[in-house]
Structure formats: structure tokens, C-alpha cells
Amino acid sequence: MLDTNGLILNVGSNYTAISPTRGSIYGGTLLTITGTNFGKEFTDNPVQISYKGKMGSVPCFLTAITSTEIKCRLRATNETEEQAGKLIVFLKTSEEAVCTGANDCEYRFTGTVPEVTSMDAVWDETNKYWTVEVTGTGMTGTPATTELNVNGRKQETISVTATKTVFKITDIDGFVLKNMNVYFDVGLPKGYDTVFKGKTLTLSPKLVSVTPNYGSVGGAFIIA
Description:
The protein has 224 residues and is mainly β. It is 2% helix and 42% strand. It starts with 13 loop residues before the first strand and ends in a 22-residue tail after the last strand.
């Protein structure tokens, strides 16, 4: 009973921009993809970077999705040199979303990334908390774009310099740090497999205060 002349049902999708457009060949880059008509479930819109045809496709693990934005973290490539590829957002129908962004939605994997050489647990005596200090060269980004995850939990980033990045340990279970991942603005650093993969750090308990520090010869309630 409805006049459908001139009505169009749009079941497609398009994406207009990706940020950043360059990231580490070792993976770990957090991409933000903007567009229209994305799904509500993580499985609705798989994402990958395609280069070298079927021989070089890198999946991007979705971390958040709305109807207009997808956030995902790239897996590693098997490359040692810079590679250019195209971002592909698949639809639930197995088709591809249409790219309407600049440069045909090109993305580049780069080997110009920070290099990490060591990771240590350090007690901050002044502020009374444990930190993890990561040393290396060429570290880039800000505390807002640099992450340390322990067992999937994000810790607080204190500072980032070219040779040292410091994280405050704020959210852990127990005293053994494991399943640790560090992400810079460009993604995973060179040396990640040696310094982080499969490694653990053990923290020791610290007595930081006793309240009150005076009282009766008996019966005082003390918080340590």
C-alpha cells in the first residue's frame, strides 16, 4: 500500500578517513576509522590492511565500534621494510565499504620506530609507588598516546622522552607483572619481542605509612 517510487534503501557503507596513516611494521598501531553505517557488533565490520595482494594482509583487532567510528589495533607484518597497502573495511555481507577518503585510503607500514632495550620495575621512593621504566632510543609520542598494558589493563603513563618512558603501576592483581605490552604512538617498538614478549617483573611489598604513629601502650588502632 506504499508508493516506493523514488525511495532508495541504502545498505552500503563508506569510510572517509583513517588516523594515523602510518604505523609500525611490528604492529600495535591503534587506528581510528571514520565513516557511515558501521555495525553494532565487533564481528560486523572486520578490518585489514591489504598489500602484496593475498600474500600480505594484516588484520586489525577491533577494540571499539559505533555507527560512525571503528577503533582497532593492527597485528604485525612479516616485513622488514616500508610497505604501502589499502585499508579495507568489510561489511556483514562480505562486501567492502567504499573508500571516499584521500589517497585511496592508503596506509603505510614503516620500520622507523622506537627501539626498546630494557624494562625494569623501579620503586619511586618520593611518591611511594611502583613504576616500570622502559629505556631505549627514538621514543616518540606523549603520555596520552603511549600505553603499558599488564594483563590487558592499562597503567598510567607518567612521562615519555627519547630514551626513557615511565609508567605508574595502578591496576594489577598480585605482585607479578606478566602479559605486558607497550604501545607508542606509531605502534609496537623494535626490540619488543626481546624485552617484553613472555617476560615478567616481580614487585615486592612496601610499607609506606603507619597511621597514627603514636598512641597508648595498648589498644591503639593502627592502619599500616
